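Reopening: structure tokens for the magnesium ion complex, inputs below.
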Amino acid sequence: MSAADASQDTDHNPAGETGDGAAPAASPAPANKPCGERRLFGIPACAGVAIGPVFRTTEAPPQVTRHRIQAADAPAELARLEAAILQSRKQLLKLRGRLAVLPEEGQGEIAPLLDAYLQMLGPSRLVRGIRTRIGDRLVSAETAVMGEANAFANAFGGLAGGSPDAPGGSAPSDASDHGSARRNADEVREVGRRLVRNLTRAPFRSFAGAVQGAILIAESLRPSDAALIDPARIAAVATEEGGTDGHTAILLRALGIPAVLGAPGLMAGLRAGEVAIVDGVVGTVTLNPLPPTLANARRAVVSFARDRQRLGRLRRLPSVTLDGEDVTLHANLELPVELPMVANSGATGIGLLRSEFLFMNRDTVPTEDEQTDTYRSIVEAMSGDPVTIRVLDWGGEKEVEALTNAGVVPEVVDANPALGLRGIRLLLRQPALFETQLAAILRAAAHGTVRILLPMVSTVAEVRASRTILLRVAARLRAAGRRLPKALPPLGIMVETPGAALCAPALATEAEFFAIGTNDLCMYALAVDRGESDVAELYDPLHPAMLRLIGMVAEGAATRGIPVSVCGEMAANPSLTPLLIGLGLRCFSTNASAVPRVKQAVRGTTVDDCQRLAWQVMKQTEAARTRELVERFGR
Ligand code: PEP
Ligand code: MG
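Re-run output (same inputs, fresh job):
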């Protein structure tokens, strides 16, 4: 969004809120309270600055399908309720724990609210009432929650003179105060909404009500929510939860939307339509900015746009170091809408097509024909440049409703999904799902250059088993008279677990190429959840362990003479380009908007200097010292 656009939107102050106006985490600030400028700090997730009116997202209304239940189902419904209570308490305790980073004034406002929610989720009359509804009235857990929460909230509304049924067992001390009763009613409804959301796992969000240039603000965004954002409409995103290398952040970068994630306290007192500035470079969100702050932000918007234009001129220049070494730059693709961005970036292929988008935000699994059409259109758009299609990487934080609905994967609530049936593990257990996708990829491969990439590989046997299935699918398609490429596409693997990195030479005997997934590699090597803001500072790709693992993979690939690339987020950070070149890498795949910056880094260095840097870095024992060396190298 340009500064001019921003000021226009600001002046018009269009309402951003739609739906039922539900506040997902906090009651709105009292209308008479003066609201000055508020600055919140989070994790910079996508560079860029935007100014616009706040659009506070609301979850889609939950789908409550079963109202009445059989007596025999009551225990199961009660168990679902207990799981939802547990999950809701966990979410709130997590938010509560993160308040410490807020200024004292902010803590004072939010902490009592969260405490009230937690109290209601304890041994309260509300919870007892919900249980009774399930057991006595034989209704589903979500029906009971909605019924009891509404009855409670209405009682607050109607009983301005006090209620002996107050949540937590105590009557509101200022029960004669209508404002207080209304806030109590809001709190009960919010707790009810949270429970229903956790019970129904309400999948799709709607951003339809956002005005052009809106700043989307939410408690958290799932990757499937982020996939629904229209980058032409939403100017920036800010959330209370989330980390820099989670899939939501990756999608936002792919879409080029300035973003700040993991900013605690963001939702408290937030008013739809108020002006916000999101600075995805430093990681701040400023609400209700004062004129000087607004003027600075407008200058930042203009300077960022100029910078982007300057980098755009690099598009046609070769990606080659000062001493003549070619470095291949590919783009990662999360959604087909990014194809024009890829074309403008100067990337010479797609190094990672995350096929998850095909399975998101839908109720059924895509058919072979549907998948073929999508892959084919991407392959054709790349006009002969390679397209590396990664087969479905289900699991971890990448929840795919269609698979859950179809019963292909179990509904996981509290297991550790990052260590479970993820990526290739699931596909090998679900041959029909795997074969359908491979068949579609093979059919698309007849129209261009394709490579097939397997996610989350940890054993040689997984590669072998996948190849057997690939050959079987190819034979079946040929027998059916389908047009396939003469040579089958190369079959490569993501190296994204420490086990795979340590066994790179062995895996290179079966895999035809490696793509280093530094996002997961870092998560698994350092035991730090990539999407978790609480431990974000420990998620450090410059940790010596990570750099050793990357060096091993590069060496393992070189020993066997197979291509190796980096397609995790490390590849998109131009200050790390010399170090990665020094570690032996010559191919990077990044979000389209990072390609010109990485090219600039490639063109500004020599392989000799990069190797010297890597040699020095590998002697370090701490990431902080490596960071200094890397930053100094760039100057
Ligand atoms: C990675 O793990 O680095 C990677 C590229 O895969 P994803 O981010 O999709 O898990
Ligand atoms: Mg990964």
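Residues 250, 352, 354, 393, 496, 517-520, 567-568 surround phosphoenolpyruvate (ligand 1) (CB under 6 Å). Confidence is low (pLDDT under 50) at residues 1-34, 159-176. Marking as resolved unless the reporter disagrees.
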